[in-house]
Amino acid sequence: MAANQTSGAYIVIHKTPMAGKRIELWKECTTIGRSSDRDIFLEDITVHRKQASILQTPQGYMLRDDHGSGDSFVNGQPIRERLLNSGDQLRFGNTQVTFFASEGTRPFQLPTSRGKEMHIGKVPDSQPVLVARLDIINARDLDYSIELLSEMTIGRSRECAIFLEDLAVSRLHATIRELPNGDFEIIDNRSATGTFINGRAVARGILHEGDEVQIGATRFLFHLAPA
I need a surface site. Which of 94, 109, 127, 186 has the fewest CB within 10 A? Predict the structure, then answer.
């Protein structure tokens, strides 16, 4: 098995009662379906009891359709077997999932992203797109960024997309989301200690390039730049 398969692949589930939940792929074969004996149980009547599996192979992670009906999808295409790339969009019935190949090494008690991580050294697309990210600026000089999905929660609950291990942070402290025009806004979810943009407490606010966001003891810089 390739060495990079030990680095922590995971999926994030969208648009179901489990929306935003992150699940680590630590087994050589992770089964998915509507049966309670599956490793990943999807409470979705449009999903088969034994829908699919994600396998660790020497070539990388592979999605295999276990039902045989061709209704497991990768980036909108039905598959029987398909090697996965980080950021691939998977769909089973009405359940949408994003696959991430590796979170990389992160130090203890730094914010944990359940969303798409920045991958240094990746080959850029021929047509660059704008990517929003939060750079952590008080992480003891460590290079750590979180690439933003269309909507992500921030807080002290491990169910949050961005988990902050900080008692000054509320369990569901804030939400950051993309607006139809491409801007990003952050919303304070009536937190105990507040959400700050450039030192000013906000109930909600539009983020601009270079803005500093502070939640508890963690400070981020917001960037919007070509991927």
Answer: 127
Helices then strands, each counted (H, E), the chain:
0, 23
Residue with tokens 């943009």: 197
Looking up tokens 């088969």 gives 48
Which helix (H) or strand (E) segment holds residue 202: the answer is strand 200-202
Using CA atoms, how far apart are residues 19 and 88, in angstroms rounded to an integer? 17
SS3 of 5, please?
A: helix
Task: Kindly list the distances between the CA atom of residue 157 and the CA atoms of 20, 57, 69, 106, in Å, as whole numbers in the listed order.
Answer: 12, 33, 38, 18
Q: What angle do CA 18, 24, 30 make, to 5 degrees?
A: 90
In whole angstroms, give the CA distance from residue 172 to residue 195.
12
- The residues near 202 (Cβ < 8 Å, ≥ 6 apart) are 186, 188, 195, 196
Q: What is the mean pLDDT of each run of 10 residues along the chain (227 residues)?
A: 54 72 87 90 88 93 90 92 91 89 46 44 46 75 68 88 87 93 94 96 95 93 76
Alpha-carbon torsion (175, 177, 179, 183), positive or negative: positive
122-144 confidence digits (pLDDT tens): 444 444 445 788 888 865 444 46
What one-character-per-residue DSSP string does 96-143 give?
A: EEEEES------TTS-EESSPBP-TTPPPPSS--EEEEEEESSSTT--
Model pTM above 0.70 = no
For residue 94, the SS3 value is coil
